[in-house]
Amino acid sequence: MYMKISGAVRRLSLVLGAISGVGTAVLMLTVVPDLIARSAFGEAVYGMAETGIFVLVIVVFLALSTAQVRKEHFHVGVLDSLVSRETGRLLWIGRHAVSAVVCGVFTWYAAMGAIASTRSGEQSYAVIEYPIWPAKIVVAVGLLLLTVQFLMDCYEAIRTPQYVAKGVHESAPESASAL
């Protein structure tokens, strides 16, 4: 059962990461015409700045869980090279657990903000009225998927005695095996 859920969450994260990649191209398509219009005519294209901000939120927050699925988030691995494999596994369990808790708190806050924003129909009132609530939903969903991914990584580290995080080099010195 876990493998099916885990696979589905990972596939969803990768699909959202692909959407995030497409969002980068869309972001360029919103920024460039606006810059050309400002330079050539002294006028902005109405709604382009707001659309660019929304697309930027999509690009950043939908890609968070994708980066974790691929193990592309950065970590400081100084301790990894100084401890045994078992101690390193315990470090990874701790890292994933703390990351899940922190992301969970951020997710809760973002979800409460998204709910309140959606209920009130929150909008920005710059040049045009532009809804803000969809961006807040994207933030909450992106953080939720990242939290779930950290929880899955923590579970895998707990259930796998020989756990080594993908993308981490096994460079523990022989003297570290006693730690």
* Discrete helix count: 4
> How many separate structural domains?
1
Helix/strand order, N-terminal first: HHHEEH
Strand content: under 5%
Say how many strands there are.
2
Provide mean pLDDT, rounded.
Answer: 87
How are the strands of the largest sheet arranged?
1-2
- What is the 3D form? elongated
Helix/strand/pairing category = mainly alpha
How far is it from the N-terminal to the C-terminal residue, by CA?
35 Å
The low-confidence runs, each spanning 5 or more residues with pLDDT under 50, are 171-179
Q: For the CA atoms, what is the radius of gyration?
A: 21 Å
Largest sheet features: 2 strands, antiparallel
Proportion in helices: 55-70%
Structure, described:
The structure is a single chain. The chain has 179 residues and is mainly α. It has one domain (2-178). The chain is 70% helix and 3% strand. It is built from 4 helices and 2 strands, in the order αααββα. It has helices at 2-41, 48-69, 85-120, 133-159; strands at 123-125, 129-131. Strands 1-2 form a two-stranded antiparallel ribbon. It is elongated and about 65 Å long. The two termini are 35 Å apart. The model is unreliable at 171-179 (pLDDT under 50).
Summarize this structure briefly:
The chain is 70% helix and 3% strand. It has 179 residues and is mainly α.
Q: Which helices and strands, and how do they pair?
A:
Blueprint: H1 2-41, H2 48-69, H3 85-120, E1 123-125, E2 129-131, H4 133-159
Antiparallel strand pairs: 1-2
Structural key phrases:
179 residues; 4 helices; elongated; 3% strand; mainly alpha
